[in-house]
Amino acid sequence: MSRSLDDALAARVADTPNSPACLYCGAARFEPLYRNIRDRLGHVPGEWSFLRCRHCGSANLRPFPREEDLPSFYPPVYTFSPKLARGFLQKLLSGIEYQLFFRSVYRAQVRIIDRQVRSGGSTPGRLLDIGCGQGLRLLEFRRRGYDVFGMDFVQESVDSLAVHNIPAVCSDIAGLASAYAPASLDVITAFYVLEHVLDVEQALRQCLMLLKPGGWFAGAVPLEDSVQARTLGRWNINVTEAPRHISIPTQQAMRGLALKVGFAKETLDLVPDPVMSCAGSASMSLVPGSSTTNVYGAKKLLGIATRLTGAAGVLLLLPAVAVENFLLRRPVLGILLAQRPK
User: Fold this and answer.
1) Is 6 helix (H, G, I), strand (E, B) or coil?
2) Which of 6, 32, 96, 263 is the 20 to 30 Å CA partner of 178?
3) Is there a single domain that holds both residue 55 and residue 90?
4) What whole-number distance in Å separates Cα of residue 26 and Cα of residue 49?
5) Between β-strands 269-272 and 168-170, what pairing exists: parallel, antiparallel or unpaired?
6) Are both 154 and 31 inside the same structural domain?
7) Pairing mode, if any, of strands 147-152 and 211-222?
8) Is 7's pLDDT higher than 60?
9) Domain end position, chosen among 72, 103, 122
10) CB 194 within 8 A of CB 219
C-alpha cells in the first residue's frame, strides 16, 4: 500500500467518534500498524486496528472503546489464581505453576521494586497495588515489611483479600483519587494495568498526587519497541489482547509521560520485567491456547496439554529473552520506576 493510501486509512480510523490523540505523548499524527485484529480469547466479537503514533511510536487502539463497554471485554476467567482449578488435574497443575512460575515472578518483581525503594534510604511503608487480583503479589510485599492495600474493579477479587487481612477497595483506576487521601502512600504499583485504561496521563497524575514526597510508582507495561513486538508483529499476545489492550507504549513514551506529569527525572528508570515473565509472553504468543482463560475456563484435557506445551516454550525461550532484556535492552515487558520529587 502506498504512503498516501496509508495516510488516508490512518485518517479515517483516527477520526472515528471518541478517538483521542496518542494516550502517551498527545500527538495526533498516526500511521497504520496492525489491521483486522481479533480478540485472542474469542470473547469479544469484531475486529480492531492499532495505529502507531508518529511521534513516540506507541500503538493506539481503534475504534477507541467507550468506558461503559470496558467491563464486557473481560471473560469470567481472565487472570491466574489457584482458586480457578476444577478437578484433580487442574488443581495439580495450578499448584505446580504457582510455585514454579507465578510465585517466582512475583518475588522477582517485588525484589526489583523493594531495591529501588530502599536505594535512597527509604524503608517499607504503605503500598497500594492497583489491579491487585487475588492479592498474591501483595503477600510477597507484606513479607518484606510493607503495609499493603489493594484495589481492583472485580468485586470477587476484592472480597478474596479479606482472607489475607488485606484492606481493599473495589474501583477502577478512575476512582483512585476518591479512595485514598493525597500524599498518603509510599509506593503505588500497577502491574499490567495502564495498557487497559482510557486516560493513561490522568491515571499517572492521580498516582503522583497520592504519593508522599519521595514516594515511588512502579508500573509494568507491555512495550511496542521490544524485539518480540518487532518479530512477532500482529501475532504478539499484547496485540491480540485487543480490545482489552487499548494502548501499547514504547519506552520513550513511558519515560516522556512520567516526566510530563511531574515525576523526578534524576531517578526515573525503566527496567525489564523478570526474564521468566517475558518468556511467558513470548510462549503464549506462539501457543495462544495456553492462556489462563482457555485452560481454567473449561474442563478440557486438551487445555492442560496445551498449557504444558506453553510451559515448555517458556523454558526454551529463556536464553533468547535474557539477550533481549539485558544485552539488547528491548524487553517485551518493562517496569517503569518513577519517584515523586522530595
Assistant:
1) helix
2) 263
3) no
4) 19
5) unpaired
6) no
7) unpaired
8) no
9) 72
10) yes
Same domain, 275 and 294: yes
Are residues 227 and 161 part of one domain?
A: yes
The CATH number covering residue 136 comes to 3.40.50.150
**Contacts with 216 (C-beta within 8 Å, 6 or more apart), sequence order:** 113, 116, 117, 122, 186, 187, 188, 337, 338, 339, 340
Cβ pair 23, 58 in contact under 8 A: yes
Q: For residues 213 and 185, state if they share a domain.
A: yes
Strand 211-222, strand 333-339: pairing: antiparallel
In this structure, the answer to whether residues 127 and 195 fall within a common structural domain is yes
- Note whether 87 and 143 are same-domain residues: yes
Looking at the structure of the chain, the number of domains it has is 2
Find where cell 476512582 sits.
175
Cell reading at 75: 471473560
- The total of other beta-carbon atoms located within 10 Å of residue 282's CB is 26
As to burial, measured by CB atoms within 10 angstroms (0-12 exposed, 13-18 middle, 19+ buried), residue 147 is middle
- Write out the DSSP string of 117-166: HHHTT----EEEEET-TTSHHHHHHHHTT-EEEEEES-HHHHHHGGGGT-
How would residue 331 be classed by pLDDT, with cut points 50, 70 and 90? very high
pLDDT band at residue 1 under the 50/70/90 scheme: very low
* pLDDT reported for residue 99: 85
Q: What is the pTM of this model?
A: 0.91
Q: Is 222 a domain residue? A: yes
Integer Cα distance of 305 and 154 in angstroms: 29
Domain that holds residue 325: 82-339
Is residue 77 assigned to a domain? Answer: no
Contacts of residue 16, defined as CB under 8 A and 6 or more positions apart, other chains included, come to: 62, 63, 64
Closest Cα to residue 43, out of 67, 75, 68, 69? 75
- The verdict on 17 and 91 lying in the same domain is no
Residue 56 in domain: yes
CA distance 215 to 229: 32
